[in-house]
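Quick one, tokens below. Sequence please?
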């Protein structure tokens, strides 16, 4: 029994003071248990829900927004950031958005990112037929800009 009281005394002496502890509220007669619990919950770190502002965006609005963003690209970082944002959504970007992205890649003289646009399309589509449709619709621009596909650059890696 005596060893327990020594243990209690030892643990009381080692407790941290104030740095990691939440501030204690002074208890008064007017404070109800509900307001006390709400005040304690407020002391702990909580984050507010951050909204991007694009929750109810239609596919056409999405396409128009990213076309505008790709038209304003001035450097490689901005191009890659916009591509990451565009491909992060659970949809395949429209041909117009991809055209704007490819033109932006040419404007900032970034050939590898242009090749990666087609890799992103291939990863996002549901099947090989959809990928071929995208390739057919972007074939003229691809030839004009001189962008090769990964399949053309590394045929043995299929």
């Amino acid at each position: 029994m005596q060893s327990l009281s020594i243990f209690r005394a030892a643990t009381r002496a080692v407790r941290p003071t104030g740095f990691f502890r939440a501030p204690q509220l002074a208890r008064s007669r007017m404070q109800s248990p509900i307001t006390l619990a709400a005040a304690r919950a407020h002391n702990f770190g909580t984050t507010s829900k951050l909204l991007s502002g694009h929750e109810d965006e239609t596919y056409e609005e999405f396409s128009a927004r990213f076309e505008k963003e790709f038209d304003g690209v001035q450097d490689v970082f901005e191009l890659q950031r916009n591509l990451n944002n565009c491909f992060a959504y659970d949809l395949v970007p429209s041909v117009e958005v991809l055209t704007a992205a490819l033109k932006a890649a040419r404007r900032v003289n970034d050939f590898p990112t242009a090749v990666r646009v087609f890799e992103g399309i291939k990863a996002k589509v549901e099947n090989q037929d959809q990928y071929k449709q995208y390739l057919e619709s972007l074939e003229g621009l691809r030839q004009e800009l001189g962008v090769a596909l990964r399949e053309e650059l590394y045929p043995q890696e299929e």
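Residues 59-153 form a domain with the Serine Threonine Protein Phosphatase 5, Tetratricopeptide repeat fold (CATH 1.25.40.40). The CA atoms of residues 75 and 108 lie 6 Å apart.
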